[in-house]
Design brief:
- The chain is an alpha/beta fold and about 300 residues long.
- Helix content is about 20%, strand content about 20%.
- It has two domains: about 250 residues, Glucose Oxidase, domain 1 (3-Layer(bba) Sandwich), CATH 3.50.30.50; about 30 residues, no CATH class.
- It has eight helices and 13 strands.
- The chain has a nine-stranded mixed beta sheet with strand order 1-13-11-5-7-9-10-4-12, with helices on both faces.
- Strand 9, helix 7 and strand 10 form a beta-alpha-beta unit.
- The model has no long low-confidence stretch (mean pLDDT about 95).
Length: about 300
């Protein structure tokens, strides 16, 4: 990784030595209003995948789906030791045991690193026991609002879904936008649809055999494109925002390091873009107001989120 990204651009120090939200600083109040200007019908799309989906919850290999447990329900009152409230109130209560990054989620900028250094040049030892710096909490406190653009790569390529290990570049993103009738502008939140997770629901556990997701593939030109466009947030419907292993080098997830660790681009994963994509294809409007706020979890490396796209 060190050799691959030796000359990669960095935004360290650009917003001060203590910055913890990186390229989200590009989303100023003016950018919020630019996003609002793309609201035309008031139609709202929620982009979170269902937690505890009866058909299964896709999550990164090594993580397990969330487990929801019912603690209190009507059967609680079948016993003599049931709680009693004046007036006869009964209630339901449940809890969840989950990886914070086991569903639709935001990564903290301190989530990945190499050479012992996380975002903005801080020591990776600050992650021990929890992220002291660049956790998801500052992102959650700030919120993410701006102009979103859907880049429907699957439909652009005439496919129901991309295939294992299928790659695309920033040039493909530009060509996709042109075909959709718009451009990618500075400070846009990029939402990329591959529909790859359809295979999870089609194949079940076989989905994880020879696991290699499709996605953006590393090049110095792509990283420079993200830096020059000042992209604040990359949102995808895959588990890791990029091809799992670089075809040329075999390196795992170099864009997590080049974009998030070095440029401060926030990554959002496992989104459900299907209803939004169908709407965009129908009315030709691929730009909208994007809004999201992950849960505020102290020192966490990531957090669940239910983003909104408002057309």
């Amino acid at each position: 990784m060190s050799e691959l990204l030796r000359d990669a651009p960095k935004n360290w120090g650009k917003w001060g030595d203590d910055d913890e939200v990186g390229a989200l600083n590009y989303l100023t109040p003016a950018e919020v209003l630019r996003g609002v200007a793309h609201v035309r019908s008031g139609t709202v799309f929620t982009l979170q995948r269902l937690i505890n989906d009866p058909k299964g919850d896709p999550c990164w290999p090594g993580r397990t789906p969330a487990e929801r447990t019912m603690i209190v329900d009507e059967s609680t009152w079948d016993g003599d030791d049931a709680p009693a409230f004046p007036g006869g109130l009964h209630y339901a209560d449940d809890k969840i045991n989950a990886f914070l990054q086991g569903s639709t989620q935001y990564d903290a900028l301190g989530h990945v690193w190499y050479d012992g250094t996380i975002w903005n040049g801080h020591d990776a030892r600050t992650t021990v026991g929890g992220l002291d710096i660049a956790s998801v909490e500052p992102i959650a406190e700030r919120g993410v609002v701006g102009r979103g653009v859907l880049l429907d790569i699957a439909r652009f390529r005439g496919k129901e879904h991309l295939d294992n290990g299928e790659t695309f570049t920033h040039e493909d993103l530009e060509a996709c936008a042109k075909a959709q009738g718009h451009t990618i502008e500075p400070h846009d939140v990029l939402l990329i649809r591959t529909n790859f997770l359809k295979l999870f629901f089609d194949r079940g556990e076989e989905f994880y055999q020879d696991f290699v997701e499709p996605g953006l593939t590393y090049s110095p030109e792509l990283v420079r494109w993200f830096a020059d466009r000042e992209i604040p947030n990359l949102v995808t419907d895959t588990m890791a925002n990029e091809v799992t292993y670089e075809p040329a080098t075999g390196i795992a997830l170099p864009l997590h390091c080049a974009l998030m660790r070095n440029l401060g681009v926030t990554l959002t994963e496992i989104c459900d873009l299907e209803k939004l994509a169908a709407s965009c294809a129908e009315d030709g409007q691929y730009t909208f107001l994007y809004a999201a706020a992950p849960l505020k979890v102290h020192r966490a490396a990531g957090s669940p989120v239910n983003p909104l796209a408002i057309k």
